[in-house]
Design brief:
Strands 1, 2, 12, 13, 16, 17, 18, 19 and 20 form a 9-stranded mixed β-sheet that branches. The protein has a 5-stranded mixed β-sheet with strand order 5-10-9-8-7, with no helix packed on it. The chain is 28% helix and 30% strand. Helix 5 packs across helix 7 (368-380). It is built from 7 helices and 20 strands. It has helices at 2-32, 46-60, 221-240, 260-267, 301-314, 331-336, 368-380; strands spanning 64-65, 72-81, 86-90, 93-95, 101-103, 110-115, 117-120, 123-126, 133-138, 153-158, 168-173, 176-190, 195-205, 211-212, 216-217, 245-252, 276-282, 292-295, 320-323, 341-346. It is α+β, with helices and mostly antiparallel strands. Strand 18 (292-295), helix 5 and strand 19 form a beta-alpha-beta unit.
Length: 382
């Protein structure tokens, strides 16, 4: 009877622990997706506010700074932004930024009234005045980050929300090209109980797309507040359960701008890359209805087989699929430098991506707990 009660108490505490992790995850995601962080990009100090929040969470867990007694590593990047007016009227109808239209991230600003000429069924142009205007009709509005600028103004309009043929537009779009925006990677570590010479790394990018204008921003819940929350949860876990090896936690900036933060880190690494036993990069971790995908799973077959065996034994995620090499997240530069690594993301569920609808309240965290357990059991197996 006592043994049964003990087992029940242990299982209950285990369930409560992971439930609390999910509660913490939602707190992290909610803050990172708030207006305070404004899309964790290049307007309204959004990226800086996200950085301060992450560093404060690191300090709560008493992790050690990774960069010469500091938690951050700065680098500079060029970026095109739209900090001011972002207004568009087409055929007399006022369109809503983010929902009905977005500027191409490389676009020049423009102001005035323009007649449009049809090029094909989805492309219209105007050569009137000093600024050339290009209009593209899209099935889905997908924003990004640009470090270059075109010599003309380019606008994308959602075909679902605007079904007419655009003939005339009135535009007031202000852009500002920043040549030396300061971004910061964030890093910390927990010492190992057996060895600090070898290390395991968990990474995620905390930046997103920022915003356009003064009111519209891209929350980036799944991409990648979700992955950031997992790495912070891993930090909490290993702070309470000291790992065998030195364990490093990295939060990259400027992933959306072309993996710039991870490239800078690898090129200016504060650690010996040869001492990394394995790196697990986490991005798009907010669903899981259809399991997970492992990029580099086809490259590091021994480690992938280990991951599969753990899942088969513990019945955690629905399915584990694998891919070969891909330059689709921050693991890439480590992989190119010879570091064994996986990039893991969840599959299925909500499909919001690089748009204004990727919000904290829409993120189901379907298999968050099981993915978290799979990652920790795998990392602890080294």
């Amino acid at each position: 009877m006592r043994a049964g009660l003990f087992l029940f108490a242990f299982l209950l505490s285990f369930i409560i622990s992971f439930a609390q992790d999910t509660v913490y995850a939602r707190q992290v995601i909610k803050y990172l997706c708030s207006e305070k962080c404004y899309g964790r990009g290049y307007l309204k100090n959004g990226l800086q506010n996200a950085e301060k929040f992450i560093v404060s969470e690191i300090k709560k867990n008493k992790a050690l700074p990774l960069f010469s007694s500091k938690y951050t590593q700065f680098f500079r990047q060029a970026v095109n932004t739209f900090p001011g007016k972002c207004e568009l009227t087409v055929n007399g109808k006022v369109l809503i930024p983010g929902k009905d239209f977005i500027p191409d991230p490389r676009s020049l600003g423009a102001k005035g009234t323009f007649k449009l000429t049809k090029v094909d069924s989805v492309h219209y142009i105007s050569a009137e005045g000093a600024t050339r205007i290009s209009v593209n009709l899209k099935k889905k509005l997908t924003y990004s980050v640009a470090g270059k600028m075109t010599p003309y103004c380019s606008i994308e309009i959602d075909q679902k929300n605007f079904t007419e043929e655009p003939k005339e537009l009135v535009i007031n779009l202000e852009n500002k090209f920043i040549t030396d925006f300061e971004s910061r990677n964030i890093g910390c570590y927990v010492n190992g109980t057996q060895s600090n010479d070898s290390m395991i790394i968990f990474s995620a990018h905390y930046d997103h797309l920022g915003g356009i204008g003064k009111k519209t921003f891209f929350p980036g819940a799944n991409d990648n507040a979700s992955g950031t929350s997992v790495v912070l949860n891993l930090l909490k876990y290993y702070s309470a359960h000291p790992p065998k090896y030195k364990t490093v936690f990295i939060f990259f900036a400027a992933e959306e701008a072309g993996l710039l933060g991870s490239k800078h880190f690898v090129d200016n690494s504060p650690i010996d890359l040869k001492k990394i036993k394995f790196l697990i990069n986490l991005d798009l971790l907010g669903t899981g209805d259809d399991g997970i995908m492992v990029v580099n799973g086809a490259v590091f077959e021994k480690e992938f087989s280990k991951l599969m065996s753990i899942n088969a034994e513990q019945h955690l995620v629905k399915e584990i699929k694998k891919r070969g090499k891909a330059s689709n997240s921050d693991h890439y530069w480590f992989s190119e430098a010879g570091v064994p690594c996986f990039f893991i993301y969840t599959m299925g569920g909500v499909t919001f991506y690089h748009d204004v609808f990727d919000k904290a309240q829409t993120l189901p965290l379907t298999d968050y707990v099981d993915v978290f357990k799979l990652i920790t059991v795998f990392a602890n197996s080294f």
